[in-house]
Amino acid sequence: MAVSWGRGRHKGGGSSLSGDLRRSAIAGRDTHQVALRLSRDTALRAGERDGYGGSQPGSAVVTIRPQAESAAASFSATRAFGDWSGVFSANAQKQESRAVVRDGAGIVESHRSSDGFTASAGVSGQALGWFLQTNLNGRAAWNRERGLQELSSEAQAFTLTGSARRSFLELPAGALTANLNTSHVMSRSIGARDGVRIDNASQSEDTQGLVSIPLSKADATSFPSRIIGDLAATLGAGVRQSGGGGGEEVRGGLSWGPRRGVRLSGEWASSTENVADIVKTEPEYYGAPLVVFDFRNGEAVEILPLRGGNPNLRPPQSERFSLTTSLGPFTSSTVSGNLTYQRVEASNGIGALPGLTEDVEAAFPDRFRRDSDGRLVSIDYRPMNLSSTLFESLSTGVNFNLPRSAGETGQGATVVRVALNHTVQLSSLVRLSEGLPELDRLKGDGGGLSRQNVRVMIDAQRGRWGANASAQWHDGYRTRRVGGSDGPNDLVIAPFTTVDFRLTFQVMPGGSRNESSDAPQRRAGGLQVNFDIDNLFDARREARLGDGTPAPGYGRDVQDPLGRTVRLTLQRRF
Length: 574
What we know:
Layout: E1 2-8, E2 15-27, E3 30-41, E4 44-45, E5 63-65, E6 67-81, E7 84-103, E8 106-127, E9 130-146, E10 151-171, E11 174-193, E12 196-216, H1 223-228, E13 230-242, E14 245-259, E15 262-272, H2 277-281, E16 285-286, E17 290-294, E18 299-307, E19 317-330, E20 335-351, H3 358-363, E21 368-370, E22 376-380, E23 384-402, E24 414-431, E25 439-440, E26 452-462, E27 465-474, E28 477-479, E29 491-493, E30 496-509, E31 526-534, E32 543-545, E33 565-573
Parallel strand pairs: 18-22
Antiparallel strand pairs: 1-2, 1-33, 2-3, 3-6, 4-5, 6-7, 7-8, 8-9, 9-10, 10-11, 11-12, 12-13, 13-14, 14-15, 15-19, 16-18, 17-18, 19-20, 20-23, 21-22, 23-24, 24-25, 24-26, 26-27, 27-30, 28-29, 29-32, 30-31, 31-33
């Protein structure tokens, strides 16, 4: 069982309490698990944060983060039937939240509840040389909201999937392998919003095929194979059909390992995708309040973001290319690394509304709601189709383990793992709709974007003690008020770094189920204490305007009212 508790650092603050109880059993190939989880988050109010409109009327009751409770129960089991096996799982959850928000000049109390149930059953096994697998999944959800709007909805979805895999046609470098995957989805949602009934039904089919072809094998006896090394190709195609239209995909890849520890791989794909049902049918709702910088009025305002699905989304078309080089592991430190280039070009791509700028508001005026005085009240952040997008990135990663000292074995040994990842955005171009100019987000058009980010992770273990530290750095960026050129009223975001830390201690180490066996055994018990601190140094984003003056809306606690979070967790395996 695990219990966690967390609290914000500043006065007032918020707390979270959760409990997690699980029971699992393994008997040969048969398994089962039962789990129950309860959680409660207290509300965080505007008056508890000096920089978050604490002086405005109603700050004593207005919530920055809503009060929330949730409960979830799940069951899963697997059973063996000769050469076949079956699996069944079910999950039920219930969530409730209460928020008090500003809506224009008034204050409104909003209640949201969400109930859901999912179940899945499947079988897998061998038949006629094929490995076969099929699953039937069902989902039902009920949502209700009152206060800001009167909304109720229910949705059901059924998904039948199947896959088949087989190796055949033995080649000099190995066997050719074929994979087939298919799925059929039926869904329906019925809802009412402010007295207006909404009824949506859809179904879709998706069939994919992939063939893996070994071309050369490094340990083969032939002269060309010894020179070339490992070389394999993949070819794939698929078709999709739904009520919103059809789609198809073709892709190909090549993987080459000229020597041990060195591998190069590339993949190209072109596709027309279906739009996921949940992206279309998720009920509309107002999320937690956000503070945004309004370029039109030159001020920071608290707005209500509109979330949910968009039934009018069109299928996106995309072309993707990636090239990856992997090296290692080498030396006693098992050093390994990778370098990946990615390029994605799409039309009608599904994304979120870009940053709030005058260009974006002019392109989508119906997504911005202002009061009679021109003050921004709400923004519609539901998913949308972007006319065209182009993204290019270059990612690098390095991983290594510090070698153990001579003579260290078992639990007395010190184990240290280090991972470093760096990503640089080479291009990010967006055209919001046909006829509008292309926006370069790396230069600040249509909402800025960090060009670089770095993540470092250090994980250490010695005896009963364990520690993990991770740091993330995001490059600064500019958001232009008007696209095309920098200006004194632009928003300039400073570089930002956060550090998370975890410390664990085994108070009561557990024993093995079978002490006489030399094979590794699952631990039978033990009490573990986890101490977590997210955002260890309580860092907050900072910004200024293009002329160097402080930017409204980026004071202490405004963009991130929670800040540092501390959690204490107790875990015990029975």
